[in-house]
Amino acid sequence: MRQLRILGLASIVIVALFFTFKFYIADLHYYNVKNNVERWRKDPTSADLESIEKSMVRIDKAISLSSDNALYYQLRGQLHEWKSYISPLDKRFHLKNATSEYKKSLVYRPYWAPTWINLAWVKWRLNELDEDFELYLANALKTGAQQASVHYFIVDFAFAQYNLKSAKYLLVYKLLPLHLKMGLQNPLSERNVLKAIKERNASELACRLLKSEPLRLRKKIPGCR
């Protein structure tokens, strides 16, 4: 009996070590790809189709080892988005693939706002500002209104629609002042919010929206007093 118990314990230890090693290898693949994506964000010119495909192979391996990890699908969705930039002729195809991956991620992590906002970004890039887009945006706000990625999206989308004189501006105009303020206060979104203000030529409007805020916040916007 004692030998059987020892064998049983040994089997449990072996199985535990096997799964620990498997998840360790999966995470190695994940972090390798994540580091690549971070590098491309800092320097988009460093991204090319070959490096994206190599990263895709690695994230596929991670998913094959741990198929219920939401972060892995999220990252694979981002790779499809990078493909859409590198291969603009196939943009729609790659963005649809990104949508599919983000939805898979939500199966395992349904209350993660960055994934919902990623879906909204993709719908915007597809020029599909439909009911699904509104649902994705509403869920992002419901699950993570304080998230830096949500602040950035609201600011960029609002200023873009304002410039176009689009009725879609009405979806977010009430949210804009608060997310503009919080986006500038959050170190994780400040740079992107300022980038959106500059690219959308929205300094004057942003200043008006922040007129009741402290000068130290308004002065982050060039020319704002």
Cα(first) to Cα(last) distance is 82 Å
Oligomeric organization of the protein chains? single chain
How much is the average pLDDT? 91
State the shape.
Answer: globular
Which H/E pattern describes the elements? HHHHHHHHHHH
Which structural category do the helix and sheet elements fall into?
A: mainly alpha
Strand content: under 5%
The helix content is over 70%
Uncertain residue segments: 13-19
Count of helical regions: 11
Rg is 22 Å
Write structural notes for this entry:
- With 225 residues, the chain is an all-alpha fold.
- 75% of the residues lie in helices and 0% in strands.
- The protein has helices at residues 2-42, 49-65, 70-86, 91-108, 113-125, 131-144, 148-164, 176-185, 190-199, 203-209, 215-218.
- The longest helix is centred in the first third of the chain and has 41 residues, at 2-42.
- The protein is globular, with a radius of gyration of 22 Å.
- The protein starts with a helix and ends in a 7-residue tail after the last helix.
